[in-house]
From TrEMBL:
<protein>
    <submittedName>
        <fullName>Glycoside hydrolase family 65 central catalytic</fullName>
    </submittedName>
</protein>
<dbReference type="GO" id="GO:0004553">
    <property type="term" value="F:hydrolase activity, hydrolyzing O-glycosyl compounds"/>
</dbReference>
<dbReference type="Pfam" id="PF03636">
    <property type="entry name" value="Glyco_hydro_65N"/>
</dbReference>
<dbReference type="InterPro" id="IPR012341">
    <property type="entry name" value="6hp_glycosidase-like_sf"/>
</dbReference>
<feature type="domain" description="Glycoside hydrolase family 65 N-terminal">
    <location>
        <begin position="41"/>
        <end position="251"/>
    </location>
</feature>
<dbReference type="GO" id="GO:0005975">
    <property type="term" value="P:carbohydrate metabolic process"/>
</dbReference>
<keyword id="KW-0378">Hydrolase</keyword>
<dbReference type="InterPro" id="IPR005196">
    <property type="entry name" value="Glyco_hydro_65_N"/>
</dbReference>
<dbReference type="InterPro" id="IPR005195">
    <property type="entry name" value="Glyco_hydro_65_M"/>
</dbReference>
<feature type="domain" description="Glycoside hydrolase family 65 central catalytic">
    <location>
        <begin position="527"/>
        <end position="602"/>
    </location>
</feature>
<dbReference type="InterPro" id="IPR037018">
    <property type="entry name" value="GH65_N"/>
</dbReference>
<feature type="domain" description="Glycoside hydrolase family 65 central catalytic">
    <location>
        <begin position="309"/>
        <end position="512"/>
    </location>
</feature>
<dbReference type="Pfam" id="PF03632">
    <property type="entry name" value="Glyco_hydro_65m"/>
</dbReference>
<dbReference type="InterPro" id="IPR008928">
    <property type="entry name" value="6-hairpin_glycosidase_sf"/>
</dbReference>
Length: 679
């Protein structure tokens, strides 16, 4: 998928790796030898838990970038870590070495990650991590301590600032208004090269007392290890048989979104502090319940149900319908690929979200339209017309690919992929106001780009020369199949879009679209590029001309392309390659081959204990949201038989794997239709 890949062989033990055999909404695990966490995210922040008591590996901030190095490109920020806490019982710190009955559970329905364990014979402890969907810049960790004997607990909350941050200022203040007192731990610092101010505020909440009455709270103690590590602690006695419930909440705000992030982070924490827990969490759950109106239900194969629902959970967790932001390949689980936006969004993640949640889909396309001017500037800078979108995009909309990577300079199909997503959004929503204001202006500029990017040959055909295609193993080739096919599709969509809004159709759009060359082998098999000679390919390229482009549609050629290119797929290629083959086989009615490739598209990439997807079978960089998009497309557009057409969403040629009893697709399209496929 990208310009580099990992050659790390992963050996793991499945000791105590259990994926909740009865509940299709939860995945649980005890202790394992190899561990990859599952992120709790809300489209703004991602919180990645560890397999040690009260530890969080990282906080990722969406769309907040600074330079990765003095001479490097942009990189998404890892935020201040407010998720690492400590607990002592009777003076002994709780660690992974003195607990038993360890269990962690992801509740996908409520986007809640719960850890529970016993501490010796003294206490049962559980805590649940939420990235609150309703208060989007905040995290909330809810604790429950049940005493088996009389105990004294000491709990310490922390704000730990990564060393890359500059000039942190850490404080503890008790804010007051009338009779209300609000204790706030806070750190404010500059990002690694000073682009942003980042502010994190945090406090404890005690559920069983009136938080406005200070004399009923445990006494708080502030300590500072350094400006990079500031802490807030309390002690409390719990009698045998009694339970103590409390929470730690924190907010992280930056100058990417706020003029005064320091004050905003305080306000978010105060809101969480003074809102009853039930009300706060009920609103979070309500918003997730609305998301799950778009759902996929598989009967008869619980493991596939969990795998598919985990994929959909991540796409929902990494996005927001009210943000006009996009989704990076690893979402909010890590800084991999610098948190940049690739074709992964438009071609892989966008289609399932378009069917299941049009609000999120609108954010994804608006992310591009908001950056149209920068795309137009890039086209001019390289001698072209129209708009030329970057291979890697950040908050600015300029090219963010490292200069050494040829993809940033030559992988141009991204520009066509954007137009395809835009027209598909209109085909599903029929939102003509959006098409006039945002959609068609982008599609038009993209069509103008492809006219200027193509070269007329002596025989009247057109070539697109010197590109990196979807198959990035071959650089600087002419007439890459997917690049040419996507350009044809984008140009044809521009014609349709112009007619829809009453704009003039440029005859060059038709001329170029009708004459862009797709090269063939003598037996009619589609060639990956003009000089392709059977080399191993990184991922699906030619086969994308069948799905989703429908440029190659005659069954004979489709089958030739499938059989020729599947053996050419690299074993170190990204997850979504085989998902394309699976969709096509399903549409051909071959449920056996489709199911085989569906499983092969992601099962080798699952990492214990929860089944998080890595990008490739030999890498360990989850969660790979692109792979999630690919596997979901197999279910929706393959087995489910759904097609995006000029008439909207239509169903035909649905086919069910023999391993499944039924497949139900809920909340499809603006009408929120339900489709049921049975044996």
């Amino acid at each position: 998928m990208k310009n580099k890949y990992f050659l790390i062989l992963i050996f793991f033990s499945t000791t105590l790796w259990s994926q909740s055999p009865k509940n299709p909404w939860s995945i649980s695990s005890g202790k394992v030898d190899a561990y990859t966490g599952i992120v709790a995210a809300n489209g703004r922040i991602g919180i990645l838990p560890e397999d040690k008591p009260f530890e969080v590996r990282s906080i990722i901030l969406n769309n907040v970038y600074d330079k990765e190095s003095p001479l490097g490109v942009s990189k998404i920020l890892v935020g201040m870590n407010f998720g690492n806490l400590e607990m002592e019982i009777d003076g002994e710190k709780i660690t992974e070495n003195n607990v038993s009955n360890w269990m962690q559970t992801l509740n996908m329905k409520e986007a809640a990650f719960t850890t529970s364990f016993d501490f010796k014979d003294k206490a049962q402890i559980s805590y649940t991590i939420y990235a609150l969907r309703n208060v989007q810049y905040t995290g909330y960790i809810d604790f429950k301590v049940q005493a088996k004997t009389d105990i004294t607990i000491k709990v310490t909350g922390k704000i730990q600032t990564p060393e890359e941050y500059l000039d942190p200022i850490s404080t503890f203040r008790i804010l007051e208004d009338l009779e209300t007192t609000m204790p706030i731990l806070q750190t404010v610092a500059k990002s690694r090269f000073g682009k942003h101010t980042v502010a994190t505020s945090a406090t404890f909440i005690w559920h069983d007392i009136n938080s406005t009455r200070e004399n009923q709270r445990p006494e708080l103690t502030h300590s500072s290890v350094s400006e990079y590590d500031t802490r807030l602690s309390f002690q409390k006695k719990i009698e045998k048989g009694q339970t103590s419930e409390f929470a730690w909440t924190a907010a992280q705000a930056t100058t990417q979104d706020f003029v005064d992030p320091q004050s905003e982070s305080e306000r978010f924490v105060i809101f969480n502090l003074l809102t009853p827990r039930k009300d706060l969490l009920d609103e979070h759950r309500k918003l997730w319940e609305e998301l799950w109106e778009g759902d996929i239900i598989i009967e008869g194969d619980l493991q596939s149900q969990l795998d598919v629902r985990l994929a959909l959970y991540h796409l929902y967790a990494f996005s927001r319908g009210d943000s006009d932001l996009s989704i990076a390949p690893m979402g909010l689980s890590s800084q991999n690929y610098n948190g940049h936006i690739f074709w992964d969004t438009e071609l892989w993640m966008f289609p399932p979200l378009l069917l299941l949640n049009q609000d999120i889909a609108r954010s994804l396309v608006n992310y591009r339209s908001d950056r149209l001017e920068k795309a137009k500037q890039k086209a001019i800078n390289f001698g072209y017309k129209g708009a030329m979108f970057p291979w890697e995009s950040d908050d600015t909309g300029e090219e963010a690919t490292p200069a050494w990577a040829l993809t940033g300079t030559f992988e141009h199909h991204i520009t066509a992929d954007v137009a395809i997503a835009f027209w598909d959004y209109y085909r599903v929503t029929k939102n003509k106001e959006w098409l006039k204001e945002k959609g068609f202006p982008v599609i038009k500029e993209i069509a103008d780009f492809w006219v200027s990017r193509s070269t007329r040959n002596p025989d009247g055909s057109y070539s697109i020369k010197n590109v990196v295609g979807a198959n990035e193993f071959l650089a600087n080739v002419d007439d890459n199949a997917f690049t040419n096919g996507s350009a044809i599709t984008a140009l044809r969509y521009a014609v349709l879009g112009a007619k829809e809004v009453g704009a003039e159709v440029d005859p060059q759009w038709v001329e170029v679209a009708d004459n862009i060359v797709i090269h063939k082998f003598p037996d009619g098999t589609t060639k990956e590029n003009r000089t392709y000679n059977g080399e191993i390919i990184k991922q699906a390229d030619v086969n994308l001309l069948t799905y989703p482009l429908d440029v190659v549609s005659d069954k004979e050629t489709v089958l030739k392309d499938l059989k020729y290119y599947e053996p050419k797929l690299s074993p170190v290629g990204p997850a979504m390659g085989k998902s394309v083959f699976a969709v096509i086989y399903a549409r051909l009615g071959d449920h056996s081959e489709a199911y085989r490739l569906f499983k092969e598209s992601y099962e080798p990439n699952k990492r214990p204990p929860f089944g998080a997807l890595a990008e490739a079978a030999n890498s360990d960089n989850p969660y790979f949201a692109t792979g999630a998009g690919g596997m979901l497309q197999v279910v929706l557009f393959g087995f489910g038989g759904l097609h995006i057409t000029e008439n909207g969403i239509e169903q035909n040629n649905e086919v069910l794997p023999k391993e499944w009893k039924s497949l139900t697709l809920k909340g499809i399209g603006p009408e929120k239709k339900t489709y049921v496929i049975k044996q």
